Write a sequence for this structure.
């Protein structure tokens, strides 16, 4: 076996700002001795995340990739498999797109579905093609409150996230017996990262620090899932703040 095959590789798609879920997942699994493939749409963001990891002694490779485009996903997995053995894959891409139902254009609904659901299909099919022959690996999906319930104005997002959740369930039942741990994490609330703090400051202010879900606490869950032994697997887990009304 070559040193490259000995390298354990994590492919994490849906990485944005340093102060965000995707970036924190990358840093955590790099610290856990993975070579992390940092995948996202914006080169500057993912390169910064990868540079931070390598500057602190970890191993990371940034790959620009759109989760809805099969060609860029194939290139992503080709790069990842050249680095070593893909043992962890995380689908973190998502786009919360609220909108009034009667004014919703078909293209708007479809765009939301492509990112939050269809991309999960494309990504997990490629991940499982690499993992299944080894009968080993962990495939994790990021969910949201919308994965579990449809609230007013979130018809597009909730149907896409619910579809992603159903995909994860089906894959867990098909690939669990083949050695692949598939799990879905329901993040029930706004995350304390740049997307809310910078993108929706009014939401951050209304919720206050205690009302925003702690990123490192969420990432602890992904690490716990990755470490579970095959006789004690979790398929789904939720996380929220103490003050969340649920
Ligand atoms: N933010 C919240 O409050 C919250 C709450 C519950 C659940 N979630 C879920 O948590 C996950 C990530 O959350 P987040 O957006 O808050 O922060 P994040 O992890 O910091 O960033 C995710 C990044 O995904 C990238 N992305 C979006 N569409 C993509 C695509 N088609 N292909 C590749 N990359 C893509 C975006 O990159 P660019 O910026 O470069 O476009 C975005 O920055 C999502 O699944 C979301 O549904 C979020």
């Amino acid at each position: 076996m070559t040193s490259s095959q000995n390298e354990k590789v994590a492919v994490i798609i849906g990485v944005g700002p340093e102060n965000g879920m995707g970036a924190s997942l990358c840093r955590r699994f790099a610290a856990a001795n993975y070579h992390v493939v940092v995948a996202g749409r914006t080169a500057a963001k993912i390169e910064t995340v990868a540079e931070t990891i390598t500057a602190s002694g970890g191993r990371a490779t940034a790959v620009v990739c759109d989760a809805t485009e099969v060609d860029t996903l194939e290139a992503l997995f080709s790069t990842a498999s050249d680095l070593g053995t893909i043992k962890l894959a995380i689908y973190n891409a998502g786009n919360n797109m609220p909108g009034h139902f009667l004014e919703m254009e078909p293209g708007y609904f479809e765009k939301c579905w492509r990112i939050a659901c269809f991309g999960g299909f494309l990504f997990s099919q490629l991940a499982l093609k690499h993992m299944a022959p080894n009968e080993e690996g962990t495939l994790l999906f990021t969910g949201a409150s919308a994965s579990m319930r449809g609230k007013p104005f979130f018809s597009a997002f909730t149907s896409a996230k619910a579809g992603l959740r159903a995909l994860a369930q089906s894959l867990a039942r098909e690939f669990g017996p083949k050695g692949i741990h598939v799990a879905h994490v329901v993040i029930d609330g706004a995350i304390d990262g740049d997307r809310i703090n910078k993108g929706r400051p009014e939401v951050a202010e209304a919720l206050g620090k205690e009302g925003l879900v702690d990123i490192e606490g969420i990432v602890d869950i992904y690490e716990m899932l990755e470490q579970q032994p095959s006789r004690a697997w979790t398929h789904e887990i939720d996380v929220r703040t103490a003050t969340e009304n649920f």
